[in-house]
Specification:
alpha+beta; 4 helices; 27% helix
Length: 165
């Protein structure tokens, strides 16, 4: 497994993956579905907001195969006074239900321990199952918050000691 920071050189790859991510989210959110352009691109230009001093964007590879991405927001842009917010996390379908997604996000938590928040679309039951499994599987409790009509939030802490051998 390899994580590659997104910059000018691989930005287009991230944009393509992000459109696939939004396609998947459109199953659970009419808001996303209604924002598909005539060219098939969802929310064109949306990824511009990820390229700032408080967001880290990584492409995730399995061996030499592109497998997904993770976006971590820090500082004042993180919600609920968290140090980090998993603002977006996407794994291609070929790598789902194999344990890869769980292993990948645990690598992120290992590198960036601290207080986390993340949002999940309320109707996205598979995502809720995934995140509850990841968080509780680390022996970490979480706080569940119903944010609004569309989103729920999870707040939890990843302790550095969790990954010490």
């Amino acid at each position: 497994m390899k994580f590659v920071s997104v910059g000018k050189k691989n930005r287009e790859t991230f944009d393509h993956l992000f459109n696939l991510y939004l396609h998947d989210l459109s199953e659970y959110s009419i808001w996303v579905a209604e924002r598909q352009g005539a060219d098939g691109i969802f929310l064109k230009g949306t990824t511009d907001r990820y390229f700032n001093d408080e967001t880290m964007v990584y492409l995730i590879y399995y061996k030499e195969h592109l497998a997904g991405f993770v976006c971590l927001t820090t500082g004042t842009r993180a919600d609920h006074k968290a140090e980090y917010m998993v603002s977006d996390y996407f794994i291609l379908r070929a790598f789902r239900k194999t344990g890869f997604a769980k292993r990948a996000i645990r690598q992120v938590f290992r590198k960036y321990p601290g207080k986390y928040s993340l949002h999940v679309i309320k109707e996205n039951i598979p995502a809720h199952r995934f995140w509850r499994g990841v968080i509780t599987g680390m022996g970490t409790g979480f706080k569940f918050i119903r944010c609004d009509e569309e989103r729920d939030s999870y707040l939890f802490e990843v302790k550095k000691e969790l990954f010490e051998d």
